[in-house]
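Write out the 3D structure for:
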Amino acid sequence: QVQVVESGGGLVQPGGSLRLSCAASLSIFRFYGMAWYRQAPGKQRELVAHITSGGTTNYAPSVKGRFTMSRDSAKNTLYLQMNSLKPEDTAVYYCNANRSGGIYWGQGTQVTVSS
């Protein structure tokens, strides 16, 4: 059973930082790609950032330059470093991973940016 589990969300003031983690139950290099999505209240889920197994990253224009994705293969963990956070970044953030046999989602972690 493949699982991905997010952590690291919380309440932060505008301009602050948070680092989200996504721990996978198997080597992250066994996925074709991994990604972070987010869903704000009343809005559709949107792609925030994506990384291929080879390490190529892509970011949504709204977060480019502020968010950085990285991974630690020894810990089977994907990270999302979020800097210069804005109120519009408030959402539930989900980790996504895909490989032959399926697409896997975590349960989500809440990020709230508010003063």
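The chain has a mean pLDDT of 95.
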